[in-house]
Predict the 3D structure of the following.
Amino acid sequence: MRQELVARQLDEQIAGRFPVGRRLRVLDVGMGQGTQALRLARLGHQVTGVERDATMIAAARRALAGEPEGIRARVRLVEGDGHDTGVHFLPGGFDVVLCHGVLMYVEEPDPLVAGLARMLAPGGLLSLLVRNGDALAMRPGLSGDWAGALAAFDTTAYLPHPRTDSNGGTPIRLGLDVRADRLSKLTATLAGIAAPLHAWYGVRVFTDTAADDAGTPDDLETLLAVEERAGRTDPYRGVAALLHLCGVRG
C-alpha cells in the first residue's frame, strides 16, 4: 500500500518536472531493500542507493541480482549513512533525491535534509517520506487508547506499532523510540535550504491501524483509489500516518 502510493505520487511529480523519456540521475538515501530504487531503474533511470544497514543492503543486492543485466547496470549500491553524501558525491550531481522513512531515526534532521538538497541539480526534486507529527494521536485514539492519544498531542516522539515495517526505507526496529515531523517545520526547513515545498501528500490515511495479518483485500484497487484520493485531499491528508513532501531545488 505505502510503496504503491508513494510510487504514484513520485511519478506524478517527476512527470510534471522533467521531459518525457529523460533518463534521470536518482539518489535514494536509506533505500532499505531497494523497492523504489529498482522500480526507477526499471523505468530507465540511473539510480544510486545508499543504505547503512547490512541486512537491508544484502537484501537489495539479492533483489538486484535477479534483475536483467541492463537494469543491474543502472544501479549502484553504496554502504553509507545519509549524513555522508558529501563524502561520496559531488554537489548538484542528481536530478532526484529520495529519503523515505529515514528522518524518524534522526534526532536533528535539518543538517541531513540540507545535505540532501545540496546533492540536487537546479530544478531537481527532493522527495521525503516522514511520520506525521501532527497526527500522532490518531492511531491510539482509533484504537481506544485514550491515555496514549492524550499524550500524543504534545509530543513528536512515539513508539512504533509493534511490527517490522520498512516505511519505504530503513526498517522500524521493535521497541525503538523514534520521532515524527510536523509539516510546518519541514516546510520552513525546505524553504531555508533553497528547496521549497512544491507539493505534499498524505500516505496511509485510513489503513494505518490495519492488522499486519489482514492479507490482501479483494477490493484492493478500490482501497488504493480511496487512499490515493484522500492523500491529496484536505482535510484527510492532514491526518495521514505519513507525509510525502516534495521540494524543488531553486
Notes: Residues 163-175 have pLDDT under 50 and may be disordered. The two ends are 32 Å apart (CA to CA). The beta strands are 25-29, 46-51, 75-79, 94-100, 120-131, 157-158, 178-179, 197-203, 242-248. Residues 49 and 242 are 22 Å apart (CA to CA).
